[in-house]
Amino acid sequence: MQQQISTLKQRKTLSREYKLRLTVILLLGLSALAVVFLLSLIPLYYFVQFKENLVNQQYDKVQKANIDQNEATLRTQVTEIGNLINLFKPISLNTELQKDLLSILPSANSGVKVTGMSWNKDKKEIFLKGQATTRNTLLTYVKTLQQDVRFSNAEVPVSNLTKSANLDFNLNLIYKK
Amino acid sequence: MKATNKKLIVSLVLMLALWAIAGVAFFVIWNKLDDTNTKIADTKIELGKQANIDDLKKVAQNNSGVMADLKTRIVPVDGDVDLIDNLEKLGKMVGVEFTIDSIKEQELSNKNISGVFGKTIEEAKIRILAEGSWSKLIKVWSLLQNYHYDVDFSAIDLNLTSADEGKGVGAPVWSAVFDVVILKYK
Predict the structure, then answer these.
(1) pLDDT tens for residues B51-101?
(2) N or C: less crowded end of chain B, CB within 10 Å?
(3) Percentage of residues in chain B having pLDDT higher than 90
(4) Do B32 and A49 touch (CB under 8 A)?
(5) Do A41 and B156 touch (CB under 8 A)?
């Protein structure tokens, strides 16, 4: 009986010893895993370090270039260029104006003669005065102006049509451009 | 048994220490990686700025010729007398009676701009009177619109003053009023 108890105690002790050793082995295994993990971090560290250096160099280079070129000065310069260009209108506008104004003058044999013409930029208004041989010639001339898309409001006052021949006329029209 | 207990404690401490070191090392690398990514983003922003600067430089370079030309199309500070002389020469050249009736200096009509490249610009509103044949007045008009300085017409008035056609005296005489605006440095 006593021998049996002794054997049971021994078995318990053995089992505990076994578990302890197993735990130690497990802990050593985990330590080995930590070492492997640490070793694997070494190339990663160098790679990250290399990348960091490269990016820093690139950043410094670009930033220095940007500071040297001074964006604000360039921006001001470009704004000034824009301002200067805005001050000028295309030269073609002048030639167009002359062409358009001269184009409203009647042809020599139309029976209408213009003796005065004025144009005002702000009012966009053209004033014409002249003489027409007959009412019909004047009305034909006005109709031609009315059909011209560059101008509008070409109306001859009725008072200008009182005479049947050699009529003096005054005409206002709007230059759309 | 005691020896095994000691081994257990040692291996436990060793394991904890190694994982702690591994954790710190990983944290350091992770931080570096994070910093690098931030720097990459910053570099991209700087590169964007550089692209803007390049565009601005291109605009400035491409327009340098036009700028040089436009600057000469503004009457210089001391160029008033030359301007008047040259306008009068233009009239003489065409062969019309040519008078500069008035010159009025005024602020730029474009209120958003007061000057360029550090110089103030104003407008010279000039009224020009001319008298002569129709064709000569049209020539004056043409020359004015192609004048070296930028000429902006604000009003034009053409009137027949004497119609002598058929009477043998000469061609009909017309009078013209040209209201023009020329830019000048102040």
Answers:
(1) 888 888 898 888 888 888 888 889 999 898 999 999 999 999 999 999 999
(2) N
(3) 61
(4) yes
(5) no
Beta-strand ranges (E) seen in chain B are 97-106, 115-116, 119-132, 151-162, 173-185
Taking the Cβ of residue A76 and every Cβ of chain B, the question of whether any pair is shorter than 8 Å is answered with no
Q: What is the pLDDT of residues A102-117, one digit of tens each?
A: 999 988 888 999 999 9
Q: Which of residues 139-168 of A touch B (CB under 8 A)?
A: none
Min Cα separation A41/chain B (Å): 7
Chain B partners within 8 Å of A76 (Cβ): none
Q: Which helix (H) or strand (E) holds B83?
A: helix B80-94
| A75 contact B CB<8A | yes
SS (H, E, C) chain A: CHHHHHHHHHHHHHHHHHHHHHHHHHHHHHHHHHHHHHHHHHHHHHHHHHHHHHHHHHHHHHHHHHHHHCHHHHHHHHHHHHHHHHHCCCHHHHHHHHHHHHHCCCCHHHCEEEEEEEEECCCCEEEEEEEEEEHHHHHHHHHHHHHCCCEEEEECCHHHHCCCEEEEEEEEEEECC
Q: Do A30 and B15 touch (CB under 8 A)?
A: yes
B164: closest CA of chain A, how far (Å) = 13
For residue B94, what are the contacts with CB-CB under 8 A and spacing of at least 6? B132, B136, B139, B140, B143
Query: Is A14 within 8 Å of chain B by CB?
Result: no
Q: What is the ipTM of this complex?
A: 0.70
Enter the pTM of the model: 0.71
* CA–CA separation, B86 and B92 (whole Å): 10
Residues A60, A64: Cα–Cα separation, whole Å: 6
> Which of helix, strand or coil describes residue A90?
coil
Q: Give me the amino acid identity at A5.
A: I
To the nearest whole angstrom, how far is the Cα of A158 from the nearest Cα of chain B? 23
